[in-house]
Amino acid sequence: MKSEDFRFIIEYAIKAPSGHNTQPWKFENTEEGIVIHPDFSRSLPIVDKENYELYISLGCALENLLIAASHKDYQYTVQYPDNAPSCIKVKLTKSETNETIKRPLLDYIATRQVTKSKYNDRSITAEDLKKLTSCFSVDGVSVLLLDGKERFEKIIPYIIEANSLQFKNKKFISELVNWIRFSKREAEKTRDGIWSATMAMPGLGKFVGSLIMKNFVTAKSEAKRLTDLLEHTRGIAVFITDNNNAITWVKTGQAFQQFGLTATMLGISHAHLNMPCEELAVREEMAKELNIEAKHPLLLIRYGYADKMPYSFRRTIDEVKYPG
Ligand SMILES: Cc1cc2nc3c(=O)[nH]c(=O)nc-3n(C[C@H](O)[C@H](O)[C@H](O)COP(=O)(O)O)c2cc1C
Fold it and tell me: Is residue 181 part of a domain?
């Protein structure tokens, strides 16, 4: 496709969320359209052994890409990956008539963020909750809203248990610390990773920040922090899938991106509490608790009202072009 259309579309695609802001994607401009390649050099082998979160992140980028493509009058078909190492092929055909239906929510792609601060527990209207549950229609993916503490209380023990398993694992902490950017200068330089300011952490610099994370942040201190966050949460959205394979992971990303953009439009903040989904034994136990034994709870998202936090950085289009 024309380079200027490619750049317009990719500018939106790269604003998608990704685990630890790894941005595990490369985009290829082909005669037929755009191919999204997974970039396994940016995978998270400890927290995401199966690469399911990596494929969810690609699905988020895909959804932004499709929304942006419709605004450049492209019609699309998507060829999903059959198994983990393969890519997502998007066939794009420019409409001659300029009558392509422009998909909504384009304007919220830049203002969406995963807001990692404490929320207030102000309730959300039934009308807005309905908009959140019905904002996507994706095969094999649904969302369950546990609105109000009395409804989500039963999954708190699974969040704390999985978090404790993770923070007792030195490899988990090392991987996380590797992706935290402890100052604005470092975040601006790499344009990836979790900038400490997005988590309301002071800019300690890499040396002091890593030292504190590795020596003073424990399963116990994190459990306390999480309990406080959960006290200040309006509700939890659980993304549930029928299958657990690469196609489903990408589709979950698409559904989650629609959710994130819709929440942004409604002024509702959201952030992940994914630990019980990442620890497979805990995921199974949580599925039983939710009476969905045969299904897969792949994402846990807290939501509520909050002020915006600083935005995360992104690498440039030239840095994410395939083959690079
Ligand atoms: C699949 C996936 C898993 C994520 N898991 C977590 C998580 O466990 N905890 C968390 O605070 N944020 C999580 N995030 C949010 C990312 O950290 C966030 O998207 C990234 O830092 C970029 O920030 P932004 O979305 O505000 O642009 C996840 C995002 C995705 C797409």
Answer: no
Nearest atom in ligand 1 to the alpha carbon of residue 60 is 31
Q: Is residue 239 part of a domain?
A: no
Check if the beta carbon of residue 147 is closer than 8 Å to that of residue 124: yes
In a domain, residue 80? The reply is: yes
Percentage above 70 pLDDT, the chain? 99
Arithmetic mean of pLDDT over the chain? 96
Q: Quick one: how far is CA 2 from the chain centroid?
A: 29
Give the residue whose CA is nearest to atom 10 of ligand 1: 272
In a domain? residue 35 = yes
Cβ pair 166, 47 in contact under 8 A: yes
The Cα–Cα gap between 146 and 202 comes to 32
**Residue 116 CA: which ligand 1 atom is closest?**
11
Q: What would the mean pLDDT of 256-269 be, rounded to a whole number?
A: 98
pTM, two decimal places: 0.98
Domain region containing 36: 3-111
Whether 97 shows a pLDDT value over 90: the answer reads: no
